[in-house]
Amino acid sequence: MSFAQPIRTLAVGYRGREKSDDSYTPTPYDVSGRQMKVVGGSTSVLLAKGLASELSAGYVEVAFERHPGGFPDGERYVRLLGSVTGEHVILVQTTYPDPMIVELFLLADAIRDAGARRVTAIVPYFGYGRQDKRFLEGEAVSAKTLAKHIAVDCDELVTMTIHNPELLKTFPIPAHEVSGMPALGRHLKSSNMDFLLAPDDNAVRFVKEVSQITATPWDYLQKERIDSYTVRITPKKLAVKGKSVAIVDDVISTGGTIATAAKELRSQGARRVIAACVHGLFVDNAEGNLKACDDVIATDTIQSPHAKVSVAPEFAAAIRALD
Ligand code: R5P
User: What pLDDT is recorded for position 26?
Assistant: First the structure.
């Protein structure tokens, strides 16, 4: 039996029971007649509105609090404030921080209950993507756990620059990866950077992609992770003296990787150092670590003061390309 089958069965069974329950009454929203509608989770409202604009689609507002201030225990609440009956709904919700995962499930369920014809989950940052296998016996393969639950109410998934794109092939619904590097490339091209640096082997594919857009030379470092907060790089001569350099990575978490790479660049005479990432988590002492850089840019897959580049055009293109 494939990984997909039990979930499809679960979803169908669940929906079947729900529809046979006489007490279930769909919310009587007006039908606007649009072909596609966008719904944004509370951490992805700006990106979702940008996407609706790119697609010329309707935007359905959502109430995230039943009472001002929300529930005292921090539980999430959602209520659709417009119709999605019969519509193809684009549900945009990032999965960081953790409560946003619950909110994603609530929204998907509410959208289905309201009679959507098709639900496409846009998960700009796919949290738990790094637990993509069972490293130790007894562990959850967390990335698959999320995918299974998204598949209960969503027909397909589109995410951006995921840790292991191969994992998407194992998901129970069609799942696609869109690259966030073109968005970073657009920004860096207009910032006139002289040089790009991948802070580790893993980021080489990212820096290569950005370099095709910015037409700048690049190099990479060898990184060894000591623990969650500490990394060590192998000393290497870089052609950065007097240059403006962008360090390009998929994720900035604690900023330890960027700080270590930035120090190396400074010690080799780089004039200006900026950090560019798709997903800016900025946890723990990240802001302190990032003082090693002149500027930090991230995309809006996760909202933060550094989210200066929108990936709405990238997701719009991906949605237009769906079957
Ligand atoms: C690792 O493979 C990733 O590409 C990033 O380099 C890493 O997640 C960054 O973490 P931190 O900011 O905590 O060094």
Answer: 37
Mean pLDDT within 19-34:
39
Instruction: State the pLDDT confidence band at 12, using cuts at 50, 70 and 90.
Output: very low
What average pLDDT does the segment 97-111 reach? 98
Selecting among 144, 148, 223, 243, the annotated active-site residue is 223
How many whole angstroms separate alpha carbon 59 and alpha carbon 37? 6
Q: Is 223 a catalytic residue?
A: yes
Best mutation site among 252, 283, 293 for ligand 1 pocket (most ligand atoms within 8 Å of CB): 252
Q: Which residues line ligand 1 (CB under 6 A)?
A: 200, 202-203, 231, 249-257
- How many Cβ atoms are within 10 Å of 54's Cβ, its own excluded? 18
Q: Which helix (H) or strand (E) holds 108?
A: helix 99-113
Q: Do the Cβ atoms of 319 and 90 come closer than 8 Å?
A: yes
CA of 222 to the centre of ligand 1 (A): 13
Pick the atom of ligand 1 nearest to 289's CA: 12
118 strand-pairing partners: 88
* Nearest-atom index, ligand 1, CA of 256: 14
pLDDT at 22 over 50: no
What residue ranges define each of the domains in the chain, with the CATH number in brackets? 4-179+312-320 (3.40.50.2020), 181-300 (3.40.50.2020)
Pairwise CA distance, residues 262 & 248, whole Å: 11
- Torsions phi, psi for 160 (to 5 deg): -125, 135
Give me the half-sphere count of Cα atoms (radius 13 Å) on the Cβ side of residue 94: 25
- φ, ψ dihedrals at 226, nearest 5°: -85, -50
First vs last Cα of the chain: how many Å apart?
26
Give residue 35's pLDDT.
Answer: 73
User: Binning pLDDT at 50, 70 and 90, where does residue 10 land?
Assistant: very low
pTM for the predicted model, two decimal places: 0.89
pLDDT averaged over the chain? Answer: 90
